[in-house]
Amino acid sequence: MTRHSLIFTAPKTIAIVKETLPTLQAKEVLVKAEVSAISAGTELLVYRGEAPAELPADETIASLRNGTLRFPLKYGYAVVGRVNNIGVSVDPSWLGRRVFVFHPHESHFVAQINELHPVPENMSAECAVFLPSMETAVSMLMDGRTTIGEQVVIFGQGTVGLLTTALLAHLPLATLVTVDAHELRRDWSIKLGAQFSLDPNEPKLKDKLLTMLHKESWSPGTDLAIELSGRPEALEQAIGVTGSNGRVLIGSWYGQRRVNLHLGGEFHRSGIKIISSQVSRLAPQWSGRWTKARRLQVAWEMLEQLQPTTLITHRIPLAEATSAYGLLNNEPETAGQVILRYD
């Protein structure tokens, strides 16, 4: 049996390759893909050749664990499909089940049972494919340690940014402001619960943000700034609007792009905490009560509540994947979540 796989062959170059499937072992299943989601953050860095080539592709996803980010490579981590065949030692109840798998873009693939995440009953494949983005959004709230009455500014309203906004909008915050370069995303941000949404390129952005955050008798600036834009220059903007002893949470990965910060002024005496957050691990303060499985379950529950499929703007067949990456790279202002279909 054969499959079609997406391979990044060089910067801004992909190929859809026909391959022979590996033999199904006794404790494995064959998954036939329905949809997969393209990450406009990490995956675009890989597509552009801006990811460090020597870095392991991923240390927690089985299908990526033994590879690096050097071309050619398979990459991706959000596939929903159905179990199409099972090994002789696998419980027959798995056959025909819809599952989510952290796996690259492929029409068919073999997986271990422990790699499968059953999709809840009545949840569509298009909703379930948001699972990694929702888990990341959940981790942003956990690592940001947001509390009642705080002011929060989020830089970046891609899929993860929008889901983070939607989750934070359910908390009793004093102020929730977002920043994004694209009007489409700013409009979505307001619909999801942000009180204000600004363009990072508009004049005197810092002054406007500080005015929005001003409260009588409060220390100036935001309590928490979350940087999710993927833009190195946004980190300095985030630090600039954070008040004394506030927190800056970095969820972006900048790849090989360097971040230049001016930290010789107010920052030196500000007591601002800069926190790196990455979803593949739990922060140590959560290890006593939380596991990755518990966080993932919360992400499933949030997907059921929020139903984020309205964020999908393009559904593109795998055979036309070149146009999908070109769209995200060249016309990001027109795109929300882009998914690949395997009809």
Tell me what you see in this structure:
With 343 residues, the chain is an alpha/beta fold. The chain is built from ten helices and 15 strands. Helix 3 crosses helix 4 and helix 3 packs across helix 9. The mean pLDDT is 94.
A few lines on this structure:
With 343 residues, this protein is of the alpha/beta class. It contains 10 helices and 15 strands. Helices cover 27% and strands 26% of the residues.
Note the beta-strand portion: 25-35%
Gyration radius over CA: 21 Å
Number of strand elements: 15
Q: Which descriptor suits the 3D outline?
A: globular
The chain-level mean pLDDT equals 94
Order of helices and strands: EEEHEEEEHHEHEHEHEHEHEHEHE
Low-pLDDT stretches are: none
Main sheet characteristics? 7 strands, mixed
Helix content: 25-40%
Q: State the secondary-structure class.
A: alpha/beta
Task: Please report the number of helical segments.
Answer: 10
Distance between the termini: 17 Å
